[in-house]
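> @MW can you paste both from yesterday?
MW: sure, first one:
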Amino acid sequence: MWRFAPLFTEVTFCEQGATSMLPIYPGGHMAYQNFVVEQLRNHYANPAELPDRLLDIAECFWEKNLTGIDTLMQECYSRFGPKPRPPSCMLRSVLLSIALGVPSYTKWVEQMKTVPAYAILSGFKFGDTPGIGTFANFFSRLWQLDTSNIQPHEQPPKRKVKKPKKGEKAESVEILTVGELIQQLEKQAPSEKQPYALLFKVFKQEFLDESTARGLINPSALALSGDGTPVATSAQQRKMRLCKCKEQGISDCSCNRYFSQPDCDSGWDSHRGRFYNGYALYMFTASDSENDLPVFPLLHSASRHDALGFANTFFTMKTFLPDFTVSKLLLDSAHDAMPVYEYCRKNHIVPFIDLNVKRGIKQKYKDDFTIGGDGVPVCLAGLKMRHDGVELAKRRSKFRCPLTNRISGVCSCENPCSSSKFGPTVHLAMKDNPRLINIPPRDSAEWETEYAARTSSERCNKRIKNDFNLEGGHHRCSKMWYCRLYATMMLQHLVAWDLPHESAFRTALKAAA
């Protein structure tokens, strides 16, 4: 059952004293700052000697006001009962645990009971910290669905991915093609009513919008780099038969099974060259950001092909970020499909997509020339032609004979293929083949410079998986995986912001000494 409530409406209470039950940090961010300095001085003789890693994240918390989350999540809490922990403190504690490399929240709860700094920087008094049940309730409030997974536990047997050749990616197990999926999504965009909707609102309001305000992301002309990466959740599929077919000698029946992780299945990890069970994380990154900042993620089943993951993630992102205008798309060869180019052309997006040799890279053009793998025409003599400008109004590039001297007008070819003084000239129009014909052309310095930024996706995914140890959570449900994923994204934005030259946090610690 879906749980959605208006998140930005004004809350009024008639009951006397009911407002005291709201999860608001009293005094706001300044009160949190004073609390941290006072409590650290009470528990440590010299707080400035705490580990640098801890002080660095403390400085980020000192500068970033997270109390807006308390207002955002008011409707997720009851107005009656005991006063809840402020969501800002709970989120701060989650971010701190991931930044310090503690993957288990059970262990984190224990560490907050023994290390005063962990509790204090989260916003809790040492000795009065939340238990594992409070964290579980906090994650459930962020997840807008009564069940912890999106798909039901009972499902038919899942299709198996075939092992590809060495160095290649596995073929898609889905019958739906990229073109058909894009057509469907154009007709009916994904709904905003997603289980992770509130998670994304928290991320956008407190982190993505902040990075945009700081000039780290340009929402009016966004250059996006997209890539998928495997997220292993278990060594193998956890499933159980619900039928009696095996007892009757039928071992490969199509009866439903009970999957403990219904949103996951088995996929092929082309980087490690092995099968894995879990998700395929598709992440969009701001490629023109120096910090490789994440913009929008989506967890797909591991067997889903990157091209299908791209289409689903892209249109979902458009639903959640309608004010963002995408101007460029930087994608690898797994996305080299004609429907992607046609969509980009129709929506004025410049595609920078590497060609997939398996889909063909040489095509005849008007019976006279061949278009090479880099989108440059090859003359009848087998030579690559030279660039001779771009006509943006007509969306076409001009190429000329490579053996003709423009000054003297002399062609040095032994068998000239044109009677023209300057040799043959070819105009490549994008409308003829938007996949092979690019502006800028693939062999140009401009294209190479732009496409080099595609590695921002790989660096972003590396930070999420390695630096913040996404897979270390060992969770059993999509709710926890999404919460952990968004927390790692929040940390990437948080540490990317420039801190003041003189640390206000360290100065406050010294002043309180």
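MW: second:
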Amino acid sequence: MIYGAQKGREAVPLRLLAALWLFVSAALIWSGWSHVGTLAGWDPDDALRLVQLRDFLNGQSWFDTTQYRMNPPEGAPMHWSRLVELPLALIIIALRPFFGQESAEIIAGTAVPLLLLGWITYMLARIATQISSREAGVAAALITLSSGALLLQLRPMRIDHHGWQLAMAVLALSTIFWTEVRKAGIILGLALAIWLHISLEGAPMTAAFFLLLGVRWIGDVREGTRLFWTILSFALFTALLFLGTQADAFYAATFCDTVSPPHLAAVACAALIMLPVVYFQPESWKIRLLTAALSGGGALAILLFSAPQCAGGAFGGLDPLVREYWYSKVTEGLPIWHQPWRSIVTLGAGLLAGTISWAILNARLGGSKRHQLGTIGYFLFFGLLLSILVVRTISVATAFAIPVTATLVALLFRQYRQSKTARNRIGLVVVILLLLVPGAAISSLIRLIPEDARPGNQNAKTADESCQSAKSVRALATLPKSTIFTTFDIGPTILAQTPHRILASSHHRNELAMRDHIQIFRSAPDAAYRLMKARGINYLALCPSETELAFYARKDPQGLWAQMAKGKMPAWLEPVGVMGQGIKVWRVR
């Protein structure tokens, strides 16, 4: 057994978990069918991932992730890993002969996120059972399957890499409680390597895992076995994943948004310093501390020396104009104080419930349970800090909070069963329900607070969503195959739903095309025309109420879009009409 013996009341109730997962999966498919049945996905990344997947299935190289229908004729370099596309591709290949391409894509896009949801639910239930009881395991499953922060990344057709990041984070956390330390170290190293391979957003939490293992080893030499196998596994799998998916990067420019040769060198340096010392188990804690310091310092020095441009993160070298007009407006990558308060309160409810639960339990539990609780608390508070600084990391922090919240629910449930008074029992039921579905509870409360919104804003938002929908964009397929100029977010949907090409989307490696995209909208009409002709653009297709366009109109009142919004159409634009659900189309003469 991974966690040691689990029998009787301490075993995870698999049948109950499976039934809950099937019920929630059916509800998610039904409620999201407009996104599933049209292969729309939930955001531009899902749409572009589908395009990348189709290109791969149609013969594009495993090692070539360039999107050739963007920024033609050169194409747009992408930083995405093929690894995420592999399970989707295998399902489509298996089912395509029986159901056809579109149905096979729908099945794959539905099955993969939901299977990840089931796996994550099971792992969190196992953790909660280990640190508390069977009741806590059931509570963890219920919280997971109703968590908005998690379901946003694990619903049908959410085929981007965020669900896989979440799965690797939970797998990594689960290994900390395994009793077979060699196996735990190997799987932990593998999980962290895959997480970083998918996205370098996992780097801070990866550092947190190694920091915990390193501190434990410095304090107790017997902790070296788990650390040794984790380092060895992480170093080997990081190299294998790099060589197996992007070996040609050895001869290309260094990018800071994915594992590259400087990162490999840093990992190798740390491993070569640590592994011999950990293996020989020095008795002196001073030697262990010095080794850990040299390992971390050496890795950091190599990375900064060989890739100084990466000191500012994945977007450190981004073009200033692209940063101002695009990246600074991507709210999910900004700190919590830049977010709409209603969204943050709702998404952060599970994390808040876990933080409060940890404080209560820490004061009440003792012995080994308190030690295990402290371990989860370390990752919980580390995740909380990351969520405050970069809000899109909130799903991982919320997942780490679930076993803690479930433990408190189990404790309150025991008190409920022992309580003799109706008042206490009713109060405990209310608290338990609030902990099980904190997001729904808080969302219901904030609906009572009137929104500070200008008249017509909600109607404009609804019209814009309809305009950019997959069903609406499909109407553009009737145009002759061409290069269409549109806003960043609608671009991937055009690629997924039509045979056309686009200039740019919200994907930063294509920054030169992104800069031209911005310049066209903000330049005077004559200058914009020259740029469009140089880029071979044939049509403009725009949803007039789109947020990006409103920003250009406000920021650059003399620019192309600001003039068009005022009804001042340049002579070189020929109106084609309205297509789909409000897409205005012009042909470039």
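> thanks! Residues 101-131 form the longest helix (31 residues).
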